User: What shape does this take?
Amino acid sequence: MHISGWKEVVRRRLDGELMRLPVEGDWPELGADASEAARRGALGRLEERHQELLAAVKGLHDARLEDTLLSEATERAAAACRAT
Assistant: This one.
C-alpha cells in the first residue's frame, strides 16, 4: 500500500498537481481486514496505479523527461527564492 500511494503521487505530480503525501498517508494502516480478498484488492490497486504511472510516463514528451517534479514544500521554497 505504501508503494501504491507513492506511484499515485508521482503520476499526479506529472500531471502538474502539487502533492506532499499520498492521499491515504505514507504508511497506511492495514486495518482489521487481513483477508485474502483484501490482499487481492490491495494488489489490484497497486497494479492499477502502476499502469497509470506507466501510461503517464509513456505520454511525456522527451523534453519533460528531465523535469524536476516539485512538492508543495519545494514549490513554496522556490517561490520564496524568486520573490527575493
Notes: Helices lie at 2-14, 36-58, 72-83. The mean pLDDT is 84. The CA atoms of residues 1 and 29 lie 9 Å apart. The two ends are 40 Å apart (CA to CA).
